[in-house]
Amino acid sequence: VQVAESGGGSVQAGGSLTLSCAASGESFSEESMAWFRQPPGKERELVAAISWNGGRTDYAASVEGRFTISKDNEKNMLYLQMNSLKPEDTGVYYCSVYYTSYSVQQYESWGQGTQVTISS
């Protein structure tokens, strides 16, 4: 599955953004997917994950209740709705196929990502 992220931008704290991830490949509908982010000067981290059919979602504690991950298998699209944004949400956001047994460091292939900047 190849991916292309979009939808990032600069907003003030408290605002909202929706990120999109366009995926290519026939296996998208069968894959669990996830959003990761890399804050400036920090390591990449898992933000949210969703099972192949959307039946299960998991979130990092720092975004629980503010972010919503969703998956449209008809359109080969993954989304991340981000509300009540905080300056600490700033970073480059990436989508990827999600492997539950992998640490973040084991992922080898990333898209170009989309920059999210939250000002206070």
Give a quick rundown of the structure.
The protein is built from no helices and 10 strands. The protein has strands spanning 2-6, 9-12, 17-24, 33-38, 45-50, 57-59, 67-72, 77-82, 91-97, 114-119.
Globally, the shape reads globular
Which stretches of 5+ consecutive residues score pLDDT under 50? none
Distance between the termini: 36 Å
Strand order of the largest sheet: 2-10-9-4-5-6
Record field, number of beta strands = 10
Helicity, as a percent range: under 10%
Structural class: mainly beta
Strand percent estimate? over 45%
What does this structure look like?
This protein has 120 residues and is mostly beta strands. Helix content is 0%, strand content 48%. It is built from no helices and 10 strands. It has strands at 2-6, 9-12, 17-24, 33-38, 45-50, 57-59, 67-72, 77-82, 91-97, 114-119. The strands form 2 sheets. Strands 2-10-9-4-5-6 form a 6-stranded mixed beta sheet, with no helix packed on it. The protein has a 4-stranded antiparallel beta sheet with strand order 1-3-8-7, with no helix packed on it.
Features:
120 residues, mainly beta, 6-stranded mixed β-sheet, 4-stranded antiparallel β-sheet
Give the topology, please.
Elements: E1 2-6, E2 9-12, E3 17-24, E4 33-38, E5 45-50, E6 57-59, E7 67-72, E8 77-82, E9 91-97, E10 114-119
Parallel strand pairs: 2-10
Antiparallel strand pairs: 1-3, 3-8, 4-5, 4-9, 5-6, 7-8, 9-10
